[in-house]
Specification:
This protein has helices at residues 15-24, 47-50, 94-103, 143-152, 165-176, and strands spanning 2-11, 28-42, 54-60, 63-70, 82-91, 107-120, 125-131, 134-140. By secondary structure, the protein is of the alpha+beta class. β3 and β4 (63-70) form a beta hairpin. The chain is globular.
Protein backbone atom coordinates (compact mmCIF):
# COMPACT_ATOMS: atom_id res chain seq x y z
CA UNK A 1 0.00 0.00 0.00
CA UNK A 2 1.27 3.50 -0.86
CA UNK A 3 1.05 6.56 1.34
CA UNK A 4 2.67 9.96 1.57
CA UNK A 5 5.30 9.92 4.29
CA UNK A 6 5.83 13.36 5.88
CA UNK A 7 8.66 13.74 8.37
CA UNK A 8 11.53 15.75 9.75
CA UNK A 9 14.63 14.72 11.66
CA UNK A 10 16.55 16.53 14.37
CA UNK A 11 19.74 15.90 16.30
CA UNK A 12 19.27 14.81 19.91
CA UNK A 13 21.69 15.85 22.64
CA UNK A 14 20.16 13.68 25.39
CA UNK A 15 17.88 10.75 24.57
CA UNK A 16 16.60 10.30 28.13
CA UNK A 17 15.51 13.95 28.27
CA UNK A 18 13.69 13.62 24.96
CA UNK A 19 11.93 10.46 26.15
CA UNK A 20 10.74 12.26 29.31
CA UNK A 21 9.41 15.15 27.20
CA UNK A 22 7.56 12.76 24.89
CA UNK A 23 5.87 11.00 27.82
CA UNK A 24 4.97 14.40 29.37
CA UNK A 25 3.30 15.38 26.09
CA UNK A 26 1.11 12.27 25.86
CA UNK A 27 3.29 9.91 23.84
CA UNK A 28 3.55 6.21 24.68
CA UNK A 29 6.30 3.80 23.73
CA UNK A 30 5.25 1.58 20.83
CA UNK A 31 8.50 -0.32 20.32
CA UNK A 32 11.36 -0.72 22.78
CA UNK A 33 14.95 -0.14 21.67
CA UNK A 34 15.34 -2.51 18.70
CA UNK A 35 18.21 -3.07 16.28
CA UNK A 36 17.47 -2.14 12.68
CA UNK A 37 19.48 -2.92 9.56
CA UNK A 38 18.64 -1.30 6.23
CA UNK A 39 20.07 -2.23 2.84
CA UNK A 40 19.43 0.06 -0.13
CA UNK A 41 19.54 -1.50 -3.58
CA UNK A 42 20.33 0.27 -6.83
CA UNK A 43 21.64 -0.31 -10.33
CA UNK A 44 25.37 -0.04 -11.00
CA UNK A 45 24.84 3.43 -12.51
CA UNK A 46 22.86 4.52 -9.39
CA UNK A 47 19.71 5.22 -11.38
CA UNK A 48 17.46 5.17 -8.30
CA UNK A 49 19.68 7.55 -6.31
CA UNK A 50 19.79 10.00 -9.23
CA UNK A 51 15.97 10.16 -9.07
CA UNK A 52 15.99 10.43 -5.23
CA UNK A 53 14.24 7.09 -5.10
CA UNK A 54 15.08 4.13 -2.88
CA UNK A 55 14.48 0.39 -2.87
CA UNK A 56 15.13 -0.94 0.63
CA UNK A 57 15.06 -4.14 2.63
CA UNK A 58 14.81 -3.43 6.36
CA UNK A 59 15.23 -5.92 9.16
CA UNK A 60 13.69 -4.49 12.34
CA UNK A 61 14.02 -7.00 15.12
CA UNK A 62 12.46 -10.15 13.65
CA UNK A 63 10.44 -8.30 10.97
CA UNK A 64 11.48 -7.85 7.33
CA UNK A 65 9.98 -4.96 5.32
CA UNK A 66 10.51 -4.11 1.65
CA UNK A 67 10.05 -0.43 0.83
CA UNK A 68 10.14 1.76 -2.26
CA UNK A 69 10.20 5.54 -1.76
CA UNK A 70 10.05 8.24 -4.40
CA UNK A 71 9.47 11.96 -4.68
CA UNK A 72 5.85 13.06 -5.12
CA UNK A 73 4.99 14.36 -8.57
CA UNK A 74 4.20 17.80 -7.11
CA UNK A 75 7.25 18.08 -4.82
CA UNK A 76 8.05 21.52 -3.44
CA UNK A 77 11.86 21.67 -3.11
CA UNK A 78 11.52 24.45 -0.50
CA UNK A 79 9.11 22.49 1.74
CA UNK A 80 9.86 22.52 5.48
CA UNK A 81 8.99 18.82 5.72
CA UNK A 82 10.28 15.83 3.79
CA UNK A 83 7.56 14.29 1.59
CA UNK A 84 7.92 10.88 -0.05
CA UNK A 85 5.52 8.43 -1.66
CA UNK A 86 6.18 5.25 0.29
CA UNK A 87 5.08 1.78 -0.73
CA UNK A 88 6.00 -1.03 1.62
CA UNK A 89 5.09 -4.52 2.62
CA UNK A 90 6.23 -7.01 5.20
CA UNK A 91 7.98 -10.07 3.78
CA UNK A 92 8.84 -13.40 5.31
CA UNK A 93 12.44 -13.66 4.13
CA UNK A 94 14.56 -10.57 3.51
CA UNK A 95 17.53 -12.63 2.35
CA UNK A 96 15.39 -14.21 -0.39
CA UNK A 97 14.20 -10.72 -1.42
CA UNK A 98 17.83 -9.63 -1.67
CA UNK A 99 18.52 -12.48 -4.08
CA UNK A 100 15.44 -11.57 -6.13
CA UNK A 101 16.53 -7.92 -6.34
CA UNK A 102 20.04 -8.97 -7.39
CA UNK A 103 18.64 -11.23 -10.12
CA UNK A 104 16.61 -8.25 -11.39
CA UNK A 105 19.74 -6.08 -11.69
CA UNK A 106 19.70 -4.32 -8.30
CA UNK A 107 22.68 -4.74 -6.01
CA UNK A 108 23.26 -3.65 -2.42
CA UNK A 109 24.47 -0.04 -2.67
CA UNK A 110 24.40 1.25 0.90
CA UNK A 111 23.79 -0.25 4.36
CA UNK A 112 22.83 1.73 7.43
CA UNK A 113 22.12 0.57 10.96
CA UNK A 114 20.55 2.04 14.05
CA UNK A 115 18.97 1.19 17.35
CA UNK A 116 15.41 2.55 17.20
CA UNK A 117 12.87 3.28 19.93
CA UNK A 118 9.42 4.28 18.72
CA UNK A 119 6.87 6.51 20.44
CA UNK A 120 3.42 7.63 19.27
CA UNK A 121 0.53 9.80 20.28
CA UNK A 122 -2.96 9.81 18.74
CA UNK A 123 -1.72 11.56 15.57
CA UNK A 124 1.91 10.81 14.80
CA UNK A 125 5.15 9.08 15.67
CA UNK A 126 8.48 10.08 17.13
CA UNK A 127 11.35 7.64 16.78
CA UNK A 128 14.71 7.96 18.49
CA UNK A 129 17.54 6.55 16.39
CA UNK A 130 20.97 5.76 17.81
CA UNK A 131 23.21 5.74 14.73
CA UNK A 132 26.98 5.33 14.33
CA UNK A 133 27.20 9.10 13.66
CA UNK A 134 25.06 10.26 16.55
CA UNK A 135 21.61 10.40 18.05
CA UNK A 136 18.70 11.60 15.90
CA UNK A 137 14.92 11.64 16.17
CA UNK A 138 12.21 11.74 13.53
CA UNK A 139 8.74 13.21 13.77
CA UNK A 140 6.34 11.65 11.26
CA UNK A 141 2.77 12.79 10.79
CA UNK A 142 0.70 15.63 9.31
CA UNK A 143 2.61 18.89 8.75
CA UNK A 144 0.62 20.86 11.37
CA UNK A 145 1.23 18.10 13.92
CA UNK A 146 4.97 18.07 13.15
CA UNK A 147 5.16 21.85 13.61
CA UNK A 148 3.15 21.83 16.86
CA UNK A 149 5.03 18.84 18.28
CA UNK A 150 8.45 20.26 17.46
CA UNK A 151 7.40 23.51 19.16
CA UNK A 152 6.15 21.64 22.27
CA UNK A 153 9.50 19.80 22.39
CA UNK A 154 11.30 23.15 22.38
CA UNK A 155 12.91 22.75 18.97
CA UNK A 156 13.92 25.71 16.87
CA UNK A 157 12.63 25.32 13.28
CA UNK A 158 16.26 25.71 12.14
CA UNK A 159 17.05 22.41 13.92
CA UNK A 160 14.69 20.41 11.71
CA UNK A 161 16.37 18.34 8.98
CA UNK A 162 14.81 16.87 5.82
CA UNK A 163 17.85 14.86 4.75
CA UNK A 164 17.90 11.06 4.60
CA UNK A 165 20.37 9.04 6.65
CA UNK A 166 22.32 8.48 3.43
CA UNK A 167 22.71 12.23 2.89
CA UNK A 168 23.56 12.81 6.57
CA UNK A 169 26.21 10.11 6.23
CA UNK A 170 27.62 11.81 3.11
CA UNK A 171 27.82 15.12 5.03
CA UNK A 172 29.48 13.38 8.00
CA UNK A 173 32.04 11.71 5.72
CA UNK A 174 32.86 15.05 4.08
CA UNK A 175 33.27 16.71 7.49
CA UNK A 176 35.38 13.94 9.05
CA UNK A 177 37.29 12.61 6.06
CA UNK A 178 36.13 9.10 6.95
CA UNK A 179 36.64 6.37 4.36
CA UNK A 180 33.63 4.36 5.63
CA UNK A 181 31.29 3.33 2.84
CA UNK A 182 28.39 2.18 5.02
CA UNK A 183 26.71 3.68 8.08
CA UNK A 184 27.21 0.62 10.27
CA UNK A 185 28.51 0.13 13.77
CA UNK A 186 31.32 -2.09 12.46
CA UNK A 187 32.46 0.53 9.94
CA UNK A 188 32.16 3.45 12.38
CA UNK A 189 32.94 2.17 15.88
CA UNK A 190 32.08 4.20 18.97
CA UNK A 191 29.49 6.47 17.32
CA UNK A 192 31.75 8.22 14.83
Amino acid sequence: MSAVEIEVKFRVADGATLERKLIAHGFHRVTPRTFEKNVLFDTTDRRLRSKQSILRIRQYGERWVVTHKRLPDDIDPAARHKHRIETETEVKDGDAMSIIFSQLGYAPAFTYEKWRTEYADATGHCVIDETPIGLFAELEGPPDWIDATSQRLGLDPAELITLSYGRLFDDWRAATGSSATDLTFAAIPRHG
